Amino acid sequence: MFKLNKRLILCLEQLFKQAFNNDVLKSTEGAIMDFNQKQLQILETAERLFAMRGFHGASVRDIAQEADVNIAMISYYFGSKERLIESIFLKRILDVKTGLDELVKDKHLAPLEKMNRLIDLFVARISERPHFCRMMVRAQATEEGIPTDLITDVKKQMYEMVKKLITEGQKKGAFVSDLDPLMLVNTIVGTTNHITISQNFLRKMWNMEQMTDEKFREHLREKVSNHLKKMFKVVLTHEP
Amino acid sequence: MFKLNKRLILCLEQLFKQAFNNDVLKSTEGAIMDFNQKQLQILETAERLFAMRGFHGASVRDIAQEADVNIAMISYYFGSKERLIESIFLKRILDVKTGLDELVKDKHLAPLEKMNRLIDLFVARISERPHFCRMMVRAQATEEGIPTDLITDVKKQMYEMVKKLITEGQKKGAFVSDLDPLMLVNTIVGTTNHITISQNFLRKMWNMEQMTDEKFREHLREKVSNHLKKMFKVVLTHEP
Amino acid sequence: MFKLNKRLILCLEQLFKQAFNNDVLKSTEGAIMDFNQKQLQILETAERLFAMRGFHGASVRDIAQEADVNIAMISYYFGSKERLIESIFLKRILDVKTGLDELVKDKHLAPLEKMNRLIDLFVARISERPHFCRMMVRAQATEEGIPTDLITDVKKQMYEMVKKLITEGQKKGAFVSDLDPLMLVNTIVGTTNHITISQNFLRKMWNMEQMTDEKFREHLREKVSNHLKKMFKVVLTHEP
Amino acid sequence: MFKLNKRLILCLEQLFKQAFNNDVLKSTEGAIMDFNQKQLQILETAERLFAMRGFHGASVRDIAQEADVNIAMISYYFGSKERLIESIFLKRILDVKTGLDELVKDKHLAPLEKMNRLIDLFVARISERPHFCRMMVRAQATEEGIPTDLITDVKKQMYEMVKKLITEGQKKGAFVSDLDPLMLVNTIVGTTNHITISQNFLRKMWNMEQMTDEKFREHLREKVSNHLKKMFKVVLTHEP
DNA sequence: CATGAATGAGTATTCATTCAT
DNA sequence: CATGAATGAATACTCATTCAT
Description:
The structure is a homotetramer. The first copy, chain A, is mainly alpha-helical. Chain A has one domain (6-237): Tetracycline Repressor, domain 2, CATH 1.10.357.10. Chain A has helices spanning 6-19, 24-29, 37-53, 60-66, 71-78, 81-105, 111-128, 130-141, 148-171, 181-197, 199-205, 213-237. The relative contact order of chain A is 0.10. At the A-B interface, helix 3, helix 8, helix 9, helix 10 and helix 11 of A face helix 3, helix 8, helix 9, helix 10 and helix 11 of B. The structure holds a DNA duplex.
């Protein structure tokens, strides 16, 4: 007699999440993240609008209209506006985490090379996930709502990873001794984020307004990547 | 015979701003920024709520209630919600600009010392203007609305200043030759902003949740200041 | 110890009016209708705006601004918005009544001539009091508010007068016998009013849009006057 | 793939209207004017309240409450208060136009008979559409807003029709030569309108206050019809 | 399974009026 | 005596969500 429609499943998911909320990612790791075409349309449009206008500034009406789906579909598929934004974070953050995990597991890279890879991982978001990057920035600036746990979790992992990376580098004598891993992480993430959200300003500064979005982002990515790598090399090794 | 009530004055101000919008700051430099007690209450509360919840997430109702003033007062004093947020930006950005100007005029500081002062100027916002810092981050992430011109203007000035500072340092042989001023600015601002908006996360990481807001911010400020100064010293001079 | 400011006086006036409301006009006939300059400015502006936008469509803010007086002055001088519109009606209707009285008293005019004078009296409003005419039309279309008593009163008087005029004409053999005075009054007033409020339309129809307001109204007045006089001559006397 | 919900349809309608606004009626002639029960309730209530209190005097709250529908329904169905009043005008004016068209096409009537029919057409509104008649009067007295184009259009058509009717009558020798069609139209419309909006006054004058609305309107209609027909017979033919 | 219709709570703003000065 | 400052109530409208079909 029970009808297990998508909505109920989402609801149950939520309950599980609450029950095991201290390791959010693990519990959702295996989550069935298979969305149909319409759901993907919604997610993509929502990501863009949430990024540009903020959670409250982007109405479900707008999202539905731009995604070319019925207004009721959003509540129907995701349960609520809040759970929609959660879905976006869940989806994207898993990607980030996967990237980090792979890098951690790699045993063959030199410490500096590994740091460069880490930088590239973050810088890549400038051109690949600019909307989501904006959402992350907004989310961190925000007091409430938004899946803070998820974000905290991934940030912690990242910090731990960089700490390990630096310690290893120091043990191998590749890095100088006096380094603060957390501050270094903040410099990578902060610089990357800031450049991502300031794209339009930088474009104006460099008179590149007629360049396509894609091309400009590629240009930016390379520039930032070089900047951070060079800077970190000096900072970590004291060699130019 | 003209009646110049507050509303009209605000309206005229707006017109002026539109007419001369290419140098926004200059036109408002001499603007009479004298607000009465109630207006200041509103501005402060609004700053906090806009910072935490975003423009659309903070309703005028909430602002009025928390500022303990009548709802109608906001429209009465500022004309509209949009003009309220503009007032906040105007007020705070003028402060930033003043700080920059003073630093520029100072002729007695060594290049590295001047850079350290610049870092301190930004880092100070972590403890002094955390709400406004959040607002700035949000504003830059946003597509439209918000006094983009004002922000663009102040960012340009800052960039020009750092460029000049670095060039001077290079001429004097104090700094290495291969430096990208714009990227360095982004690193300072990006790192500072990111730490400001991630305060709560860092507090958890360091198990300092029972510390007062004020104390923690002071601690953070020092930590970030040291980090950036040390990093910049190495990057600019290649000396540890 | 009593302070008899203007407001109180107006209030007392109101009380008197309620007490003797069955002959409104008489009680206000001797009313001190002496307004100072600012009051006259308000009355004139209010008349225009009420005429064009209706009672609720014209805000006291607008009226005060256009009349170049402080907003609080309207409440201060007239007590309320409602009492402001009443003052306008009172003032203007007394004029109408005075005109009618004078015509009634005139014993030397032939019946048809007297009717022509009556027509002219009404038609004159097209060019002289177009705003007030519009207000009257609105007032009659309205269910509530507005000094209906005043209007009813003046309309009754007018009807009585026309009835007397026609009866006299019939007695003297100047007019045909089968005439309905009330319907004839309605035709004069209805036609005049309709033309007054349709001025803009007629202007377009006749391609006189570049003519000044004043000139056009004069032109209209003559045209309507002739039309009504000619029509009434035939109707009253059956002679072309 | 386009979503054509009611709101969008209304929006498109509006765009069309703007694009072809010089022949408003034609573009809406085939417009699907099929309203559901709730929409009709709203339209009828709105007509009454707009008639009695004017556009600004009748709030959407009042309309919704009296029509026994949710407040949000009005925006939902009609888009805005302005578009609600437009819908009323559109609906009713199309009826008027249809009536006129049918009369024009009729080839078998004598000139005077045709004029009588025209009078009946207008007089009928006294008893059938008293509210809308009031709205029309208000609309014409108003400076701006309200679908002036629609009204201008129908007025022009009416004028043209009467002109043709009179010219035909003159050609056939049925009417006298010296006649001003536009003034005659104004007399019919003005008299009819004035009587419609003065109903309550006339009721008092004739001591018919206990009569039902319906009965009184019927009585009035006959009286006005006879008056105008008799008057026009004399005016047009110079025969009693 | 998907959706058009519907809704109560909420939005920013304007209103006429009051009151302390 | 006149007015700038202030306000509670009302304004039209939009919101995310629900529900019958």
